[in-house]
Amino acid sequence: MSIKSVLSIPFAKVIRKQVYKWANNPHKTQEKVFQYLVSEGCKTAFGKDHDFISINNYEDFKKRIPVNDYEGLRSYVDRIVAGEENVLWKGKPLYFAKTSGTTSGAKYIPITKESMPTHISATRNALLFYIAETNNASFVNGKMIFLQGSPVLEDVNGVKLGRLSGIAAHYVPNYLLKNRLPSWETNCIEDWDTKVDKVVEETINEKMSVISGIPSWVQMYFEKLIDKTGKTISEIFPDFNFFVYGGVNFEPYKNKFEALIGKKIDYIELYPASEGFIAYQDSQTEKGMLLQLNSGIFYEFIPADEFFDENPTRISLKDVKIGVNYVIILNTSAGLWGYNIGDTVEFTSTKPYRIKVTGRIKHFISAFGEHVIGKEVEKALNDAIVGTSTNISEFTVAPQVNPESGLPYHEWFIEFENEPDNLDELALKIDASMQKQNVYYFDLIEGKILRPLVIRKVKKGGFHEYMKSIGKFGGQNKIPQLSDNRKIADVLQNFLKD
């Protein structure tokens, strides 16, 4: 063992002890964050517009701060982009994280000198918790790869602009730099196909120990390595023992990954967002990710089934319950107030507070009143393939409201790595799980409003071709796993298997 790996274990245990100190005092921790945010917010244009000076408690806060999405804060963000100071947070931000989204184009999410360190420390701590739990730090001696966006940043009125992962690349600590791949030059390549080919070239003969990225894009990297060598990933990289990922539910990809890797490995789940680093997996034996209560974010929650009501219930951490699907609302040291990032979460534990991401509040199917959510389609697919040799590369679901004949149905577009022996049987299993999970869906099937779901086979690489066709091919772009319209489904018809 190297000195670096030997020293990592006691250091990891110190950090774990520090984190659990605030995690075990959650309400006191969140109250301190709340007071800090309101105090600093008083000095801003947003704070003056919303009478922050009169806020004494959470009830006062709710009366003054509406729940916003990006469009709700856009007028303030536009002022910051134009160069104005003290708008949503004191001074000017360090960065804008550019994300795709909204009806009116790209989003510019501010990242401040107060919020940026929390992104870095959370990523570091996730790895340290793994070391502390396993007493294994051998991976620190190997090479590490984080498949991410380009670190090239633009300048917008004195503020740097780029993708969050590209911004984070500027904060890799010195002790990891010599272990990190790919090269800076390769990271700067914008075209994703070209970039992955170059990453393969640079890593194929290296001792890789940590690989991280969005599963669908890492899968592409793995497949190219296997095509080039004819070996499994564990044969190419024998020191590779865990995978770090975030942004999607990994379960639908797990079988495929383990087939590509050739052995079972550990996984570390992260929940990073441009708006703030929300949670990370703190244990290999507990479900869910540890909610970051001490990172300059005050959290609010709205039950997902009330979100579109006129006056939905809006609560702080102390009133949440395990097993309820919530829309997560952020108030941050980057000046995002009452901010709905669009995600839904569920608590798996309250001692300490751990969550799992269940989907997107805007990504649901309710064309017939069924209100199917991401968690349900992911579980249904996993239920259907567990214990089989069927592997899924990618999938999405959409309603078919106007079929050429017969009753309407949910249409599942699936790209298989290993196809099932019987597609009809797989469809029945998925449908049975959907009916079991969602009583509205069950009632619609029983009442002959809907017929059971239909599977369409997408050709190999079809989803990647689809992403290219809409100009969103690259490491941070994800396909919604369900939608309430046919926007994706209609284009995917061009990429079906004959």
Mean pLDDT: 89
CATH topology of the domain at 364-495: GMP Synthetase, Chain A, domain 3
Approximate strand percentage: 15-25%
Number of helices: 18
Derived from helix and strand composition plus strand pairing, the structural class reads alpha/beta
What does this structure look like?
This protein has 498 residues and is α/β, with parallel strands linked by helices. It has 18 helices and 20 strands. The protein has helices at residues 3-23, 26-41, 45-49, 58-64, 70-81, 116-134, 164-168, 174-177, 184-187, 192-203, 215-229, 233-236, 251-261, 374-385, 423-437, 439-446, 462-469, 487-492; strands at residues 95-99, 107-111, 143-146, 154-156, 159-162, 180-181, 208-212, 242-246, 266-273, 276-280, 289-291, 297-303, 325-332, 339-350, 353-360, 364-365, 372-373, 391-400, 409-418, 454-457. α10 (192-203) packs across α11 (215-229) and α14 crosses α15. It is globular. The model has no long low-confidence stretch (mean pLDDT 89).
Topology (elements, then pairings):
Blueprint: H1 3-23, H2 26-41, H3 45-49, H4 58-64, H5 70-81, E1 95-99, E2 107-111, H6 116-134, E3 143-146, E4 154-156, E5 159-162, H7 164-168, H8 174-177, E6 180-181, H9 184-187, H10 192-203, E7 208-212, H11 215-229, H12 233-236, E8 242-246, H13 251-261, E9 266-273, E10 276-280, E11 289-291, E12 297-303, E13 325-332, E14 339-350, E15 353-360, E16 364-365, E17 372-373, H14 374-385, E18 391-400, E19 409-418, H15 423-437, H16 439-446, E20 454-457, H17 462-469, H18 487-492
Parallel strand pairs: 1-5, 3-6, 3-7, 7-8, 8-9, 19-20
Antiparallel strand pairs: 1-2, 4-5, 9-10, 10-11, 11-15, 12-13, 13-14, 14-15, 16-17, 18-19
